[in-house]
Structure formats: C-alpha cells, structure tokens
Amino acid sequence: MSLHLVRALPGTSCALAWRTYPIPTMTRSQNMLERAMRTERLLALLAFGTLTAASQATTITVNNRWPTGEPPTAAIDGFAGKYLNFEGANTGILVTPAKGATVANSIKLWTADDDSGRDPGFYQIFGTNKVITGTTFDSEDFTLVSQGMVSLPTLRGTAGQTPLDETRSWSKSFENTQAYTSYLVVFPSVRGASTTMMQVGEVQLGSASGTIFAPGDSVLGVEAERTIVHFAGPKTVAPAGEETSSFGIMFIPDTQFYSRYAAPAGGNQFAARFGSNPFEVQTEWIAKFANQLQIPVAVHLGDVVDRAGTAGEWDHASLAMKTLDDADYPYSVLAGNHDVMNGGQWSNER
Prior knowledge:
This protein has 7 helices and 22 strands. The chain has 350 residues and is an alpha+beta fold. The chain folds into 2 domains: 2-48 and 241-349, no CATH class; 57-224, Sandwich (Jelly Rolls), CATH 2.60.120.
C-alpha cells in the first residue's frame, strides 16, 4: 500500500512529475510512518513557498531574533547549548570560517534541549566566495551545495557549555568539489507543523581534511525573506514579474484492507498486533505535514472499504478520514468498485 504525491511544476497548470512512496502496511507507531515518508525523494519534488519564477531571488537578512543566552555563535561553539531563532522556518546561520576557502562534503547537526518540534526538518547549504559585509544579502550570490531532509533523534540535548553527545546527532555526506569562503545554512522547515521557532544544538560542516566551522569564526544569525527554491527538474518559467505557486497533491489509494482488518469483523488485527491502524496513521501524517509541505488537497482514489455491506469497515474508514475533517483539510473521495459492490451485486441492484 502506498501514498502518491503528484507535483505541479512552477509556471504550469498540470502535474508533470510524480512519485509513489511506499507506506508500511503495518506500523508500530506514527513515528515509523513519518520516517518512511520524510525522505529526500519526497522533498526533491516539493518547492517550498511562493517564488518569482523569473529569478527565484530572495533577500537574506540578519534578523537579531534570538535570546541573549542562545545566539548564533552557540551553533558553532563546540558545546551542546543551543542557537534559537524566534522566526522559525527559513532561518539559519551564515558562517565565514577563519581557515579560508574549504570544500564542504558533509553536514552534522545536534539536537537542542527543548521542544523537538523546533528541530530542523529540512536543510539547505549554500556557498559563496563574495566578501560578507553588511546585514542583507542576495540569494543569487550563493550557490546551492546540498539540500535534503533532516532526521534528528527525538532525544534532547543539554543546555549550556556541556559536551556534545553523539547519540543526539544526525549527519549526512554529499558530493561537492567547489571551495567556498563562506557558507549559508538555512532550515526551510522544522519538525513541528505549528511551531514558530527554530532551534539547533550545534551545526558543523565537514571536508576531506576535517571540520570546517570552529569557535570564533564569524557567524551571523539570518532569515530568508522566503524559502530559497532550487528545483532540479524541468520547469516552465512564468513571465518576468509574475508569481507562481508550487504545490503537491496527495493521493490515497486502495485502503480497503486497512478498513477491513481494523474493523471488529476483521479482528482488529493491526491495533492488536502493532498498536496502531495504518489508515488512521496516514491521515494523521497528512494533517500534520500538509501545510508545511504545501500539499493543499488529498484525493482518495477509491476502494475505501473492502466489503461495502459491512458497516464496521465504513465506521473505521470514517474515523480515519475524520482526522482530515477535524483539521479542516480539503479532500475528495472517488468511489471504487469495492465501495459500491457487495456479494456480487452493485448497490443499485440490491
């Protein structure tokens, strides 16, 4: 069983690219489903925010929106104490390492000591060889080095000048051969859908010769005016000066066995064995992340239940879809043959 995401490319009125994302048919927890869905393949199809398609430019500004004891310097000081930015998504740091030009090929993050919903959910690394002066910068002066999902553990870090704990970290390697004198690291999204803050215990870039950032390097806390969009696939560019939106559509196909075997007549098999029901977990994931990932609508492709005449299956399906109702999230349902046929007869024949 799977969820499907269709991607509408900037400047177009139709879907030009699609991917299928497998979902575990039986899962022990919502966290397992989130890990299955929060993949780079998913985010490679999503461009966050509205963009001016002709240039995709945005302004990066030093925003001075952090507590006195949790400044940007705390992100590269070698200790677990965090950097917190009150503006949340699209914030980060701009670092000019004292060692000069380096070739970054890895990123490593550590968790902070507070609410895990503030943790980065997606990262972007940009490099520049321009001299960093002033408090505003143009994204066109920066080159994308790497981007992708962040999968920090939910284990919390500690406050203050305490040692970094590797069990509270996440890292990723990437390909890059270009050296840069300054690096911009921004987080277009955070783990929690409703939080208005971003926090990180430590940020480190690595090269073939070791770590790049060091305590004492020039570091600025920054905020992007809107997310810097870099989409690798083909796109149709809108006329200069016109804005276009980028969005996804979530498809939910063939949940009939979820409904059948979660219902009393089916033995409540999922909950009894794994502690959760897949249909409910899927709609909970959509309600939680749809706004963050700009997925404005979900479409159920039919076969909501397996046996149209079994009331318990409809009860379970209704419970799962109620999550979207409660979230005021738009969706549509297409009736499948299992939804209108029972015992070999169509609904209008019974």
